[in-house]
């Protein structure tokens, strides 16, 4: 039997059931999803995309973009979503590393990308139109979904670490299917559900958790192009589930009318960044709903979840999901620690990726004997089995649900005239979970201020990577070995965004 994720999506769905609704009144039923994804899959084949080829995608969110993902699954291609905020300089690395057969981009970037890559370049705009859509229009709807093995790659998602270059996490059809089916059951999804989908679809949360769980349940989604508090309040009464990052919830708490809008929702889910316990309490007081917080990573999909039935504990990400093993170990030796002790979170299960694209040494370094993946997060497990994350062993900053690699930002700042050195840290922030913050040392004659640094970085870094604040100091704190003490910086500046 084929392990193709797409076949699971269509296994028990009536062709006339609604699948995707858009703000402009557009509606696509499951029969339309099958037909349109078939046309796009045929277009991919006509462009020379073969099974196993990578398809790099940097386009605005639309129903057509979501169908391109499904078409890649059907064609056996490897889907490579890229953040829409990436600059052309950043894209060059990902395209060079993944060597895609096809790049789909916004129309405004086609010429620049075509000049810098040997891959075929086609376009999709925010309305789902472009050269790729035109090719799909001219292609037949009938397409025999390619049989694949569960271990065959479905996607590569690039994730930042704290050292070295970005890594491409290789996720198989089996990884994605096992996690989506587990979440479907854990969160009680059914064909009667309507998901309010305001997340980006270049990220594991919006692409795999939200989309895969919805479609494997035969449910439907209201596909919003982005988060907008007013649009969310308008559409909430039509939905039964909303998934978001903490920023969604903090901003919605500022909106009048939240209580009435949330009345019909059965489940609010939060992830991609830590949810403040205070936000959890305020939300429950305002709406009567306890937000369900869960914990996952690009490399593992979802690992733990607060229960659907039972206590959803503020500040905790809940017990391990069925089939997923989580343990706490000594970070250096990998020795399992006693209950309640703080240590490295390690994960094993069918959800865990196979490794990093073309990085066998890095892959080997991130796994223990026995198949446990070393997450880099520090945490503890209590007597009830609930996991709490207390920090990160690495300097990774998660801002608004996106991973930010401090060294990349530091390198960009250090290259500016007059900069001696810099240190980038994440600081607590009500909206973003963590705010990227730069602390900079300059030469005595430097003519550089905060606005100048931010303006320069706008040319080289995606917006979510840029610091929210740039602070200037005479020197950075160091230990006796000369290493910058980022923990001390975080402690000094912990109330900067209060």
Total number of helices? 16
Pairing-aware structural class of the strands and helices? Answer: alpha/beta
State the share of residues found in helices, binned by percent. Answer: 25-40%
Biggest sheet: strand arrangement? 2-1-10-9-11-12-13-14
Described by the principal axes of the CA atoms, the overall outline is globular
Q: Tell me the number of strands.
A: 24
Q: Indicate the radius of gyration in whole angstroms.
A: 22 Å
What is the average of the pLDDT values?
93
> Biggest β-sheet: count, sense, barrel?
8 strands, mixed
| Model regions low in confidence, pLDDT < 50 over at least 5 residues | none
Strand coverage percent: 15-25%
Straight-line N-to-C gap = 55 Å
Give an account of the 3D structure.
Helix content is 29%, strand content 25%. The protein has 498 residues and is of the alpha/beta class. An eight-stranded mixed sheet has the order 2-1-10-9-11-12-13-14. A four-stranded parallel sheet has the order 4-3-5-6, with helices on both faces. α2 (30-46) crosses α6. The radius of gyration is 22 Å and the shape is globular.
Pick out its properties.
498 residues, eight-stranded mixed β-sheet, four-stranded parallel β-sheet, 24 strands
């Amino acid at each position: 039997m084929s392990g193709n994720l797409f076949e699971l999506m269509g296994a028990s769905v009536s062709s006339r059931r609604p699948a995707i609704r858009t703000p402009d009144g557009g509606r696509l039923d499951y029969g339309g999803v099958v037909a349109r994804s078939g046309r796009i899959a045929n277009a991919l084949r006509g462009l020379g995309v073969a099974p196993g080829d990578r398809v790099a995608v940097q386009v605005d969110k639309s129903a057509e973009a979501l169908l391109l993902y499904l078409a890649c699954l059907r064609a056996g291609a490897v889907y490579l979503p890229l953040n829409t905020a990436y600059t052309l300089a950043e894209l060059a690395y990902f395209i060079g590393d993944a060597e895609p057969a096809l790049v789909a981009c916004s129309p405004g970037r086609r010429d620049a990308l075509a000049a810098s890559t040997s891959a075929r370049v086609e376009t999709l705009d925010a309305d789902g139109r472009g050269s790729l859509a035109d090719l799909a229009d001219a292609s037949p709807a009938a397409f025999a979904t390619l049989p694949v093995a569960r271990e065959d790659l479905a996607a590569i998602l690039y994730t930042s670490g704290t050292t070295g270059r970005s890594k491409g996490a290789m996720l198989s059809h089996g990884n994605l299917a096992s996690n989506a089916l587990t979440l479907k059951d854990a969160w009680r999804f059914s064909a009667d559900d309507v998901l309010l989908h305001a997340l980006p679809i270049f990220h594991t949360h919006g692409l795999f958790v939200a989309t895969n769980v919805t479609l494997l349940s035969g449910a439907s989604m209201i596909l919003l192009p982005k988060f907008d508090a007013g649009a969310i309040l308008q559409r909430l009464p039509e939905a039964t589930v909303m998934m978001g990052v903490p920023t969604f919830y903090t901003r919605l708490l500022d909106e009048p009318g939240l209580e009435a809008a949330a009345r019909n929702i059965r489940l609010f889910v939060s992830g991609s960044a830590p949810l403040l316990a205070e936000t959890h309490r305020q939300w429950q007081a305002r709406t009567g709903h306890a937000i369900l917080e869960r914990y996952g990573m690009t490399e593992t999909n979802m690992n733990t979840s607060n229960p659907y039935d039972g206590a959803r504990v503020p500040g905790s990400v809940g017990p391990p999901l069925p089939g997923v093993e989580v343990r706490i170990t000594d970070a250096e030796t990998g020795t399992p620690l006693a209950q309640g002790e703080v240590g490295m979170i390690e994960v094993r299960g069918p959800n865990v990726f196979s490794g990093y694209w073309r990085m066998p040494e890095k892959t080997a370094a991130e796994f223990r004997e026995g198949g446990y993946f070393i997450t880099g997060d520090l945490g503890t497990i209590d007597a009830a089995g609930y996991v709490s994350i207390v920090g990160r062993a690495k300097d990774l900053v998660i801002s608004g649900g996106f991973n930010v690699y401090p060294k990349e930002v530091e390198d960009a700042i250090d290259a500016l005239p007059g900069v001696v050195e810099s240190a980038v840290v994440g600081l607590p922030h009500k909206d973003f979970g963590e705010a990227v913050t730069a602390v900079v040392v300059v030469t005595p004659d430097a003519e550089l201020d905060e606005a100048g640094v931010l303006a320069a970085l706008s040319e080289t870094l995606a917006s979510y990577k840029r610091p929210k604040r740039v602070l200037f100091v005479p020197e950075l704190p160091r230990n006796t070995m000369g290493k910058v003490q980022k923990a001390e910086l975080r402690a000094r500046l912990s109330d900067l965004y209060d």
